[in-house]
Write a structure and sequence with these properties.
Layout: E1 4-5, E2 16-19, E3 22-24, E4 30-45, E5 50-56, E6 59-64, E7 67-74, E8 77-80, E9 94-97, E10 103-106, E11 110-113, E12 118-121, E13 124-130, E14 134-140, E15 145-151, E16 156-161, E17 168-171, E18 175-180, E19 185-190, E20 196-201, E21 205-210, E22 214-219, E23 221-228, E24 246-259, E25 268-272, E26 276-279, E27 282-287, E28 293-296, E29 301-304, E30 309-323, E31 330-334
Parallel strand pairs: 4-27
Antiparallel strand pairs: 1-2, 2-3, 4-30, 5-6, 6-7, 7-8, 9-10, 10-11, 11-12, 13-14, 14-15, 15-16, 17-18, 18-19, 19-20, 21-22, 22-23, 23-24, 24-25, 25-26, 26-27, 28-29, 29-30, 30-31
């Protein structure tokens, strides 16, 4: 539903119809509007060397330097806690909660599925991604990189030699995507057939993730790309695949993509110098200074800085309305 606002101290005293994906102008004067997500920080803890973080129930799995830690948060700050299944003597490179008690953890040499008490060893895991039913890995034997896909029973259902030098991986239930910085390419493979079904050229990928409807790619700076998953499916009439995609402009250097909320939508946060929230293919600034990475749940957001981590609640939105496309002539801001 689109909420309706009337006479909210706008200098023009005009009625504005607002949804958080679009502005519906009721006169020609409302030509530009900026919508921002407001984060309310409720704790900040000084910790150096944080590389990544994940939310596990109300606790936090944090990679600090070369080890993994599990912390709870209380009034006194973060408190170390124990979980006998968690691998702590290595850094975690991917983590996913699969039930109230169980999780999947990936380290540089191990894949752990706590629900079946199973741990699989590899010589070297460079990068990993976990979907609702699949685990994607970039693994190496010391000379050659391979793309491996496992199911949640630890069965390996795909193991292909990487077609190009690769650094990033994303997986969903049907596809696995890998990116190459030297080749400026992304290659998408079908998990069922093991065949490459699409190659995206001239993309400098710093991070990517699958959402329900898109492969979302953050370039090194300024752009975030949305490739529809339906374009990966072969057309029934035998015609060429749809090659259209959406490119959204996001200023500044990018560091990573964070699925927003519970991960069941197409919404993401792009962490970087000027972080943004992309909701319904609409870019919204975040009223918070730049951060390197983080994690989201339905009611909290954890953010990584150079020397600390912050714990926030999304507390609402602000809309700034500009008249006649002027960045100076601001009519008003609504929160």
């Amino acid at each position: 539903p689109i909420p309706q606002f009337e006479n909210l101290s706008l200098h023009s005293k005009r009625q504005v119809m607002l949804s958080f994906s679009q502005i519906i102008p009721l006169s020609d004067s409302f030509t530009t509007a900026l919508i921002s997500l407001i984060l309310e920080e409720f704790a900040q803890v000084p910790i150096m060397g944080v590389k990544d973080v994940w939310i596990f129930n109300n606790d936090f799995v944090i990679t600090i330097n070369e080890k993994t830690h599990l912390f709870s948060l209380d009034d006194d700050g973060v408190t170390p806690i124990q979980n006998e299944d968690l691998i702590t003597n290595q850094p975690t490179i991917a983590f996913k909660q699969v039930s109230s008690t169980d999780f999947i953890q990936i380290t540089p040499t191990k894949v752990l599925i706590s629900s079946i008490k199973s741990c699989k060893d590899y010589s070297s895991i460079h990068q990993a991604s976990i979907s609702e039913s699949k685990i994607g890995l970039i693994v190496s034997d010391g000379q050659t990189d391979f793309i491996a896909v496992l199911d949640f029973e630890m069965e390996e259902i795909l193991n292909n030699e990487a077609p190009i030098p690769i650094e990033e991986i994303a997986v969903n239930d049907q596809y696995v995507a890998v990116s190459s910085w030297p080749e400026s390419q992304i290659v998408i493979l079908s998990i069922e057939s093991g065949e490459a079904i699409k190659t995206i050229e001239k993309v400098n990928c710093i991070g990517m993730t699958f959402s329900p409807d898109y492969l979302i790619v953050a370039e090194t700076r300024d752009h975030c790309l949305f490739y529809p998953l339906k374009a990966f499916e072969p057309p029934e009439d035998g015609s060429k695949r749809d090659t259209s995609f959406t490119s959204l402009h996001c200023n500044g250097m990018h560091y990573t993509i964070i699925p927003f909320g519970d991960g069941t939508t197409n919404d993401v946060i792009v962490a970087g110098e000027r972080p943004v929230l992309i909701q319904n293919l609409t870019v919204k600034e975040i009223e918070y200074s730049g951060f390197k990475g983080g994690a989201c749940s339905e009611d909290k957001i954890v953010l990584i800085h150079d020397d600390s981590i912050s714990f926030c609640h999304p507390s609402g939105y602000a809309m700034t309305v500009h008249e006649d496309k002027s960045s100076v002539n601001v009519i008003d801001t609504i929160q």
